[in-house]
Specification:
This protein has helices at 15-32, 37-44, 48-55, 63-72. The chain is mainly alpha-helical and 98 residues long.
């Protein structure tokens, strides 16, 4: 008998949805640290464009990259896989030609 536990039903996740969620989590956690993309990418040792692709959910990260990002965010790697608090709406400048 288990007392005080909840059962969480797992829904199948697509790789694309996980990649997008991780990107949103990186952006959220970076924002909580008050760092710009430029500052954060320099500290992690990755290119700005690469970070922008990560946060946009367009990069399938390696374990090495996940660890580097989590370390710089002062977070556990598993924190990057927690549900993002923000929705996937596009922020920033509109696309060119829009």
């Amino acid at each position: 008998m288990v007392i005080g536990s909840t059962v969480e039903v797992m829904r199948p996740a697509s790789p694309e949805s996980v990649i997008k969620n991780v990107g949103r989590r990186v952006a959220e956690l970076r924002g909580e640290l008050g760092q710009t993309q430029e500052e954060f990418s320099a500290q992690v040792g990755i290119g700005l464009k690469y970070l922008q692709r990560i946060e946009a959910g367009r990069e399938n990260l390696t374990i090495e990259s996940l660890v580097k990002l989590a370390n710089q965010l002062n977070a556990r790697v598993t924190a990057l896989f927690e549900p993002a608090r923000t929705q996937s709406g596009r922020r920033g400048r509109p696309p060119r030609g829009a």
